[in-house]
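hey can u run this one w/ protoporphyrin IX containing FE bound, need the structure tokens asap thx
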Amino acid sequence: MGFLRGVPPNTATLTMQAEFGDVYQYWIGPLRVIGVCNVEDIQYIFAHRHIYEKSSSHMDRLRVFLPDSLVSTTGANYKRHATIVLSLFRGAKVLSNLHLIYDCTDKLLDVWRSQADDPSYIHLDMVKDCQNLLLDIFGFIGFDYDLQTLGNDDSSQSNRLKKSLKDYLDVIALALLLPVTIAKIYVKFNSRYRQALNVIREYTDRIIEQEQSKGSETILERKRKCLIASLVGSRQQDEKIELALPEEKRKGLSSKEIFEEILLFLVAGSETTSTALSWFIHLTSKNPRVQAKIKAELGDNRQHYLSIEQLDSLEYLDCVIQEVLRFVPPAISTIRSVTSDDRLPASGAQLYKDDEVIINIYNLTRDKRYWKIDPDLFYPERFQGEDKDHHPFTLIPFGGGHRQCIGQDLARFELKAIIARLMQRVTFGDGGPQNHLKLSHADYNPPESISFSNQLQLLAEVDHLS
Ligand code: HEM
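ok here u go:
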């Protein structure tokens, strides 16, 4: 597939589809997987959850790091975790966080302003700043806790958390590619990983302590609104008794499960959304026309926070966010295990129990059969015109079926609120090649090199400093 030569995974899967068709198989080390690229078969897979369950091989790998969290469970165990966290990030529940998101975005704008020698021209590491912003926001929304990740002070306490999360993710990124037994040994003897976990544990202990200090009545009241209250409020009275029960009878979460859930959400709640935000900044810095249209839709109001209704009315901005998620989906694929022999309806491909199926989210977004306007173009207007009625399963940045992303409503809402606020105050400009970091594998040339997004550095020009 060319991975070792530096071919990004999304380019490899496009090449394989072009060469072998909509369904093909390949090996990742000893693991045989079947890639699926056509929309009908993908819709079918998501609709048949009794045949296509969350991938067991992927969960075996995840269990090396998070053996007791929602992502690595199925069946009754999954239901027990899901009832405690699932509803908290759905629909109307996320709307109450609007001002908090604006406040954090303003904090970031203040940091940028304080870094500017020349107030009309600031050179920034946008990827890092987007990560810090989303982490800060999630600290408040999920844990009611100020993680203080926004700021210049590199020696600060919060910097320990940022560094530890980065170390933790770097180790995981490598270990996920290894066979499970080797990954376990690698993680066990990796001092960087263990140190990172110790620091993260310090933070999670403080987050839990702060919540517990509110008293059991308040926790009970907040349980339906806030993740941390729901987690702390569901702590099992006697873990040994619960553990002795059959899976279906267990209730609540053990202390270890609560720790892992917080860790999972620290990562899942910020990484992907910040990737999408970084891509928004990058793509609009290259497309001033799109920025101008967003600003026109925002009108003259450059100062005041927009209300929910005003935010809701920004239809062009919705199209831009859709287009960012289509053009550079933060997750390019997801995976399912086949639990009994089955045949895919459109391609006719025969699958067998225990096969692993890769759903190619990225390929769907680039398939000319499904998009009337050239899918290789970044063109938000497609969602107002020819591509408005695209097949719903051709754009699935959050996956699909019963294990689809639980944070999608929050992510879309965060993106819209942050971008609207940024566009009220800032214009992003392309600083030219001299201001971009040299990419290690390939020079940036969309769409092929999206997997190296974290190495891009962008230039922001502040057009409004007040
Ligand atoms: C733009 C932002 C995001 C993108 C593109 C994204 C994408 C995804 C994708 C593709 C999956 C796999 C779904 C499947 O297999 O069908 C997933 C799962 C998940 N996401 Fe997100 N996500 C985002 C934001 C978030 C946020 C903000 C949270 C937390 C609040 C979150 C929490 C999770 C969790 C916990 C899972 C695992 C669900 C399960 O195993 O049942 N995600 N996400």
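The pocket of protoporphyrin IX containing FE is lined by residues 54, 70-71, 89, 265, 268-269, 272-273, 276, 330-331, 334, 397-401, 403-407, 410-411 (CB under 6 Å). anyway lmk if its weird
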